[in-house]
Specification:
about 450 residues; mainly alpha
Length: about 450
């Protein structure tokens, strides 16, 4: 049509914006014939640092704003404008301007650069455009505004999703983990499908929270099954949901799950730091600090950081409520008393505090036996027995250790979460220490534990 080559991207971008309704940042990238990843690569090249960190996913998030996604900074817009060969103001539409912070909006108006890129027109007489009648101006405005009230989800659907999550959270102690994982996956799929449509803002946030909680719970249970790579992916998805939902309680859910998965996957320091970060999100009494403080202690115990462990245990002791149950809608993350004291004992044992650990394991045993059968997490019994046996070994009490693991071996371990197998293996290693090599009882127990380890498949 006679346009010079350098003017074609501007014309294409203008057409995509005006005729197709495509937002400016997406329109300019498409007009420049760049994929998200190539645009990110060129962004990093413009900054002069190929390792600057821009990713295709972040550019996609910039393009979703202001409906969703992440608001681009003015500095980021200036770099993107260089990549696309336009001015930074051309990458903002009126809907973007409505949501800009006052400082950025002032910078927008102060910049003499035109807000619309001027592209050379072909040599042709200007077409005559008839003036639009007043009746036509804004004729579709009301219809466009009414779109804000349209939704593909109702309160009954949201109530069902939350009710299913609460049920599965309560059923965790009495149902097979792979069964719960499968049912949570159905909730996650339903949520993702609904999010692809249009909802009112509050409904969108509720769906994001359902996505965060279901993904965090799935990550937790995948860890029980020893599927740590899947756990990390699910926790990453859960964290992304929380970022868009912007909810402190959701961030606590995810940090609790991330800290647990990291510890059992062998990343103790990472676990401690994730737990400590989770404590920064204050949510009142809905989710007690205890699980995160204990996860922090346990994480540091993996590297025998005694000072940090004892500090965390002291903080937990100061807030521990012996009557605190794990009921309510967050029962999945608000762990029961037996599990709290077990975590404390496990951390203390790892830094050489065997006597203090025994006291915690004793309290954990008493609390476990007081729970109704349906509220007991089956893995707690073998874990308490194994670690109580390990504490007796640290105190040179082989008979005491045998008394603890004997009933476990007689009853059989059966299918157990991956962490039970990990603790069985650890006790076998400790029984192989020089101190016990000449003890027939130690060899007998170690062999029986090895057999139990092989049978305890999650």
């Amino acid at each position: 049509m006679g346009f010079p080559e350098e003017a074609i991207p501007a014309q294409v971008a203008k057409n995509l914006i005006v005729e197709c309704g495509i937002p400016p940042r997406t329109a300019w990238r498409l007009a420049s014939e760049l994929s998200l990843d190539v645009a990110a690569h060129q962004y990093n090249a413009v900054t002069g640092d190929p390792r600057a960190g821009m990713r295709g996913t972040r550019i996609w998030e910039y393009e979703q704003w202001p409906d969703r996604g992440v608001r681009p900074t003015v500095a980021a817009l200036r770099v993107l404008a260089k990549v696309y060969g336009t001015g930074w103001k051309c990458l903002l539409g009126l809907r973007d301007l409505e949501q800009l912070p006052a400082k950025d909006l002032a910078e927008y108006h102060a910049d003499p650069e035109p807000a619309i890129a001027a592209a050379p027109e072909p040599a042709a007489p200007p077409a005559r455009i008839a003036a639009r009648a007043d009746e036509e101006i804004g004729a579709g405005a009301l219809g466009d505004a009414m779109l804000l009230t349209s939704t593909n989800v109702d309160d009954a659907q949201l109530d069902d999703l939350w009710a299913d999550l609460d049920f599965l959270g309560g059923a965790y102690t009495r149902m097979a983990p792979d069964s719960i994982l499968g049912q949570l996956a159905v909730i996650a799929d339903r949520t993702a499908f609904l999010l692809k449509g249009r909802q009112r803002p509050k409904q969108t946030q509720d769906l994001l929270l359902v996505g965060a909680k279901s993904s965090a719970m799935m990550a937790w249970i995948a860890g029980d099954l020893g599927r740590y790579r899947l756990s990390r992916e699910l926790n990453s998805a859960a964290w992304l949901y929380t970022q868009y939902a912007d909810d402190f309680l959701a961030r606590r859910w995810v940090r609790t799950s991330q800290a647990r998965v990291a510890f059992w996957a062998g990343n103790g320091i990472e676990s401690a730091k994730l737990a400590a970060d989770g404590l920064n999100y204050q949510v009142g009494g809905r989710l007690t600090d205890a699980p995160l403080i204990l996860a922090e202690a346990r994480g540091w115990s993996s590297v025998r950081a005694e000072r940090q462990v004892l500090d965390a245990i002291a903080r937990w002791t100061a807030i521990e409520d012996p009557d605190l149950g794990a009921g309510g809608e967050d029962s999945f993350f608000n762990i029961t008393k037996d599990r709290r004291h077990y975590m404390a004992g496990n951390a203390l044992l790892s830094v050489g505090q065997a006597s203090a650990a025994l006291r915690e394991f004793s309290t954990a045993r008493e609390a476990f036996e007081k729970l109704s059968t349906e509220n007991r997490w089956e893995a707690m019994d073998p874990m308490i027995r194994i670690d109580t046996g390990r504490a007796h070994l640290r105190l040179d009490d082989l008979d005491g250790a045998a008394a603890q693991v004997g009933p476990l071996l007689e009853a059989g371990v059966g299918k157990q979460p991956d962490m039970v197998r990990a603790m069985l293996k650890l006790m076998v290693t400790e029984l192989a220490a020089p101190r016990w090599r000449s003890a027939t009882t130690a060899r007998t127990i170690a062999e029986a534990l090895q057999d139990a380890h092989a049978s305890a498949r999650p």
